[in-house]
């Protein structure tokens, strides 16, 4: 009869394969397997596995710290406006009132996060991680209480989060007591990095090896390593210095700073200077200031370089190569002329150093 829902069969379900019945002829049918009704507790438990237990615990901890801070400032009208007393007369957070308060720029959440970040910055720490965790924790509370943030509140919350990131970068770039950058290399264990670098070093194409080693030593994205250019390189005392012309969060390069690239004289496969030297040795001269450009690969030279380097393993390594000129800014403007004069700068490897 039209309008009455009929029970689904296997053929009614998208992606159902009738051949599956042939594999389970002696067992329960497809329909029987789908008939079990799940309890609310089972489904909520399944949903909780969307993230690790430690992550959920960190969200709860961040929210608890926020509530404790609110209880200390109950004399403030804006704080009391988002709190409610439970049956034991303990002040708790009212999710609906908090969501409504976020439509105003001056609310308890912005007050707390700003004060917290300022305090952490005074200790030369970021504090941004806790702010992000708190936002996620409050998001869980809103979802659990079935409270929806208005579009105005969402817009203001997004702008506030962006302002915290900008203040975080400003604290890291300030001249006096700058906040330390987090060590992104800790996400990849050193043993794993060493093993991967060693495997990449013996490949025919040195591109992945040099970019991987440079990414590790610069604590940078691959997109940043792609933009490495000769006009941003210089030797400073005992190390090579470079910087990015721009980055994902700094498109104009106003917050660019010098990055020290140190040589590793104990293991050439982990040495960014040696990796760059090999890359320059086996590539054709490019009329570009960028280190990594589309170019023809010279595999026969690379094999000779690897053979020469491996033969000197355990001793002081000297990568002997013919001096190869580096492009200059003038060369890129005269690339259309076949009679362009060669650049004045030259790069060659001597005692495991790239000399300009």
Describe the structure.
Mean pLDDT is 76; it is low at 12-16 and 314-356. By secondary structure, the chain is mainly α. The chain folds into 2 domains: 50-173, no CATH class; 186-355, Orthogonal Bundle (hpI Integrase, Chain A). The chain is extended. The longest helix has 23 residues, at 151-173. It has helices at residues 20-23, 30-33, 40-48, 53-72, 77-80, 95-101, 108-122, 128-144, 151-173, 190-201, 207-218, 222-226, 272-281, 299-311, 329-333; strands spanning 83-85, 91-93, 234-236, 239-242, 259-261, 324-325, 346-350, 353-355. The termini are far apart. Helix 7 runs parallel beside helix 9 (151-173) and helix 10 (190-201) runs antiparallel to helix 11.
Key attributes of the depicted protein:
single chain; 356 residues; mainly alpha; hpI Integrase, Chain A; 2 domains; three-stranded antiparallel beta sheet; 15 helices; extended; disordered C terminus
User: Unreliable segments (pLDDT under 50, ≥5 consecutive)?
Assistant: 12-16, 314-356
Cα-to-Cα separation, first versus last residue: 86 Å
The biggest sheet, with number of strands, parallel, antiparallel or mixed sense and barrel status, is: 3 strands, antiparallel
Number of helices: 15
Specify the helix fraction band: 40-55%
Question: Could you say what the CATH topology of the largest domain is called?
Answer: hpI Integrase, Chain A
Spatial order of strands in the largest sheet: 3-4-5
Mean pLDDT: 76
What CATH architecture label of the largest domain applies? Orthogonal Bundle
SSE order, as H and E? Answer: HHHHHEEHHHHHHHEEEHHEHEE
Strand content: 5-15%
Assigned CATH class of the largest domain: Mainly Alpha
Label the overall shape. extended
Q: In angstroms, what is the radius of gyration?
A: 30 Å
Number of domains: 2
Tell me how many strands there are. 8
